[in-house]
Model the fold of this input.
Amino acid sequence: MSERRDAGPPTIAAEFAWARELSLGGLFIALGVVIPIAFHVLGGGRLGPVFLPMYLPVLVCGMLVSPGIAAAVGVLTPALSSALTGMPPVLPTLPLMMAELGVMGAIASLLHRRAHLPALLATPITLVVGRAVLGLCVLGAVSLLPPDVLASLPPPMRQPPAYLLVATVTALPGLVLQLIAVPAVVALVERRSTASAAMSDRHAGA
Amino acid sequence: MSLIAIHDLRFTWPDGTPALAGVSLTVEEGRSLGLIGRNGAGKSTLLLHLNGILHGSGAVRVQGRPVEDWPADELRATVGLVFEDPEDQLFMPTVLEDVCFGPLNQGLAPDAARDRALAALASVGAAGLAGRAPHHLSTGQMRRVALATVLAMQPRVLVIDEPVMALDPEGREEVIALLAGLPQTKIIASHDLEMVLALCDDVAILDGGRVHAHGPARELLADDALLRAHGLRMPASPGGG
Amino acid sequence: MLAHDLLDIWAHLRSPVHRLDARVKLVCATALVVAILATPIARPWLLAPWAGVLLAIAAASGLPASWIAKRLAILAPFLALGATALVFVPPTETADAWQLAGIELSREAALVWLSVGGKCLLALLAATLLTGATASADLLRAAGALGVPRTLTALTGFAITYLVALGDEAGRMVTAWRSRGRVRGPVRNLRVAGSMFATLMARTVERAERVALAMVARGYRGRMPVLTAERAPVTQIAGAAAFVVAVAATFWLGVHA
Ligand SMILES: Nc1ncnc2c1ncn2[C@@H]1O[C@H](COP(=O)(O)OP(=O)(O)OP(=O)(O)O)[C@@H](O)[C@H]1O
Ligand SMILES: [Mg+2]
Done:
């Protein structure tokens, strides 16, 4: 997390970096609520589970902030969206998405910001890890259900691997979209945003 | 000793865009300076150097002391910066919390910060807005509140980027009257030369990251050839005509 | 114009629910949602008391019924999808099947559907009433006062503050995209939409950096300052405590009776 209380005067670059974590994280949570609505308007409702529009801002943000904030953004985005727009529904999707996006945000940040992996590589790894987390969560949730309830679930839900397969195949266009869009946006942003670089070191004359 | 003294300030953005190419300027206590010049002349970049947010090469002194030597919080309490777009400057959920942000960061107790904030809001004629969400305000109201957020920190110098942009004529007049009534030293960057003429004692013309002229506002703003050479036009004289 | 009706449009009403302290409302709503989610999935009728309480609160809140209904309607496709899935769950031998319009449905599956759908609806109703009858700024301050970490409230605060502005920006882009006429072919269409959202995100990063500059210029030093709120009236605190106890007792009775 970015809140610091340690002694000693922080440099202005450090202050700016902390402030940027919060403002960037917060604004991208808002984007995570707004972009799915825009998708809904554009595509008439069917496109959500196919294109995973909420993943886009969470992944991009993950590549731009520290792991703690990235995880918080991943958890808060679906929660706020669910409370304000009703999507994703509280059961069963919301807890799964909070776990998946929280982990994906943190992984994206660790890979790109800490390990300096290019976004082009970090994105597919993050997507795979995200699907794995989703699978584990479904497995965990299913193992918690009483057997009579389990028997009454639709067939794919009864078998986590099958659920994961269905969810992944449905979302294939979305995963491909992330694969292309996330590195592109990250590159665009890193090229255009110069303010943080300007604060971090001194620049001499023209 | 000048309140603000800039000597040979140079700055290039990290993407290689040169913005300041040797700026030298002084501002005396109690005076107000208008910073004018075409788009991309470097006005906004220069303002960011005045309270230590950007560091170029050369020297920026406030009250005779280089900005690098100032404790960051004292410098920001001395030089208050009002940004161009109030939407980016008002980031808290309510107006009151936003205006309290600076005073609380200065270490004031919540009650004292609240008093300061309410006084600052009253001084810009926005006392009734305290409980509102900033982003539901009109542009004119946002500008007043943005000014209050900085006034609440009680700075000695007010540095304001484009104070009347996107205001309707009436809102513009109100903000100009408001600024005219503030006693602080002011540095105002703007394309609205009529406002600059109304508010500023002195004017500096910036072009290509350099100061091309610096002098009394009445003289420079009456020099049509000079203004035209730097992409500017003479303002209508205040008497009309 | 995409997000303008998500927050604060009814915060100006003066109903008894609006006048309650935000912390009290947050605690009560949380208790209700926890009870709703924890209700055994095979016994959807146990959701009835929560539905009753929420409907009573909705009536007292003065929020327009049509607005609440519109909020809940978003779940309709999701519920319909679940209902369709029901048809594909064959009744097990032990379970008694339900006959509906000639189709044989598994009773247990139908109960699960009712239960999951009911939980989603009621939880959304609770969230809708809470955010509809409370100013978002008060809700945030309440969350902070109740011990939610400052980083989380700060992030949510920025999100809420910029929701409308970013919604407007996205709305303008959607309008521009539509007015330029549709491009033919799904791939090209997607490319256009993709570059649109990419631009939106890049602009948002720049805006976030301007916000961060403004924070630093006003003395931000790594810690969001908070204005402490005054204490809630004792009667309201007692009321909230009584409400939580009543919810817990009802829950316990329902599960164990
Ligand atoms: N964040 C940034 N990153 C890179 N270059 C920048 C940035 N901000 C400004 N510049 C460049 O620096 C130069 C000076 O810009 P600046 O914004 O200071 O001009 P200005 O006089 O304020 O212009 P305007 O009248 O349009 O506000 C321009 O060439 C501009 O493109
Ligand atoms: Mg400018």
